Amino acid sequence: MTFNKNILLFAAFFGFMACSDDDPTPEPEEDPKNIVELASDTPNLSILVQAVTAAGLVNDLSAPGPFTVLAPTNQAFQALLDSNPAWNELSDIDTDVLRQVLLYHVVSGSVPSSSLSANQEVTMQNGELLTVTQVGSTVTFNDTADVITADVEASNGIVHIIDAVLLPPSLTAVNENTLMMIEDETFGNVFTDGRGHVLYYFARDVKGANNCTGGCANNWPIFYAEEIMVDDPDFDEDLVGQIDVDGEMQSTYNGWPLYTFVNDEEPGDTNGEGGGGGNWYVAKPDYSLMLANDQLVGNDGNNYILSEEGVLEMGDGNTPYFTDFDGRTLYRFRNDVANQSNYGGNVANWPDFTTPVTIVPSVLSLEDFGVIAENQVTFRSNPIYYYGQDAERGETKGVSAGGGNWPIINRSTAALTAE
After folding, report:
1. C-beta separation of 179 from 252 below 8 A
2. How far apart (Å, rounded) are the C-alpha atoms in residues 58 and 23?
3. CB 163 within 8 A of CB 72
4. Per-residue pLDDT tens for 52-92?
5. SS3 helix, strand, coil % of the chain, rounded to 5?
6. Do 275 and 289 contact (CB within 8 A), yes or no?
């Protein structure tokens, strides 16, 4: 990317005088193009033109000026999009943010390359300073962007083409305590912090309290949102809450505490998914069904566990089970047969679970879920129910009801067969 200002000047093209009596008149000189027109005629600046249009700056940069514009190439804009998991395409960048970025590439006045000097600070149109960090064979700005073509003349200023998009200092000083959301190729909409690091739910937290302590807390730091920057129809800001964890605040979404994972080194990493035996899963705003893992407590006040054989027994210990997104426990009925409910009692006692199951933690398979009469959802052909007396999230009072004929459902639940 060698810089030589003497060979990088753009000039209007004059037609040659023909050496023939048939064409003695020279072709007329073309009117010089303004900065926007010049960029529009340069294929490698097409994304810049799209950005200028999206930010509403076309008229500004077509004005008499003069202006000096640092023009990032298409490759530079693509690198910017690749650097942020929330930006898959130009339209994903907030218009105000895009405008600030572009104005950080514009100077009022004509600034030819010959006037630049090392360590020179230039005030850009957004009011922030840009530093010339090298002048010589290569001109560099902010130790980031090299000039690859300098002093391109336009009717209203000068263009220097650069190989990187420069971000204003005000934007790069990101508050990591910002709740954001990206679209992951595997998991869909996923919450992140301000650095782009993915957030997680913990199955042990079904009742809304933080149950990750000691060494667990070292691997799964709590997340607290000082700001929220999410604009998506699946997101409800009213569901963002907070809890106190030993004097520190932790954010929750719909009652589920939020964490980061220390082994996620890069933005967008999801190394924590399925961790802890499936008890950790990426935090999303749109799960149909959740994984819980807690002490089963029956309506009789006794503690229960589920044996390896799937038999409910009195005892202390955590048992995995399914809930809906609100943390309400899900059950099956031992007298049901495959894809058929045989419960004929009061539906207020055992309401059907009818929420369409479309998004589940990755340790589950959507193929295990179905729908039968009255839109009741099934898991491995087991019709699914709530228990009417489970008033609080995570409660499992139904396990002691009906003589133990209402077990919870979890990943170990066997499929019902036609027999």
Report:
1. no
2. 40
3. yes
4. 999 999 999 999 989 999 999 999 999 998 887 678 889 88
5. 20, 25, 55
6. no
Distance CA 334, CA 327 (A): 23
Rounded to 5 degrees, φ, ψ at 334 are -65, -25
Residue 419 binned pLDDT confidence (cut-offs 50, 70, 90):
low
Here the tokens at position 297 are: 């407590």
CB–CB of 383/333 below 8 Å? yes
Residue 379 CB neighbours (<10 A): 23
Q: What is the mean pLDDT of residues 112-119?
A: 91
d(CA 49, CA 58): 8
> What pLDDT was estimated at residue 27?
59
The full DSSP string for 302-366 is -EEEE-TTS-EEE--SEEEEEE-TT--B-B--TT-BTTB----S-TTTSPBP--------TTS-G
Report angle CA 333, 335, 341 to the nearest 5 degrees: 70
* pLDDT tens, residue by residue, 6-37: 333 333 333 333 344 455 555 555 678 999 99
398, amino acid identity: G
Structural domains in the chain, sorted by start: 35-171 (2.30.180.10), 174-282 (no CATH), 290-404 (no CATH)
Q: Give residue-wise pLDDT tens across range 188-238.
A: 999 999 889 999 999 999 999 999 999 999 999 999 999 898 988 889 999
What is the token pair recorded at 214? 């000691």
Show the CA angle centred on residue 155, arms to residues 139 and 44, nearest 5°: 55
Check: CB of residue 149 under 8 Å from CB of residue 9. no
Q: Are 289 and 357 in contact (CB under 8 A)?
A: yes
d(CA 296, CA 302): 8
Between CA 35 and CA 95 the distance in angstroms is 21
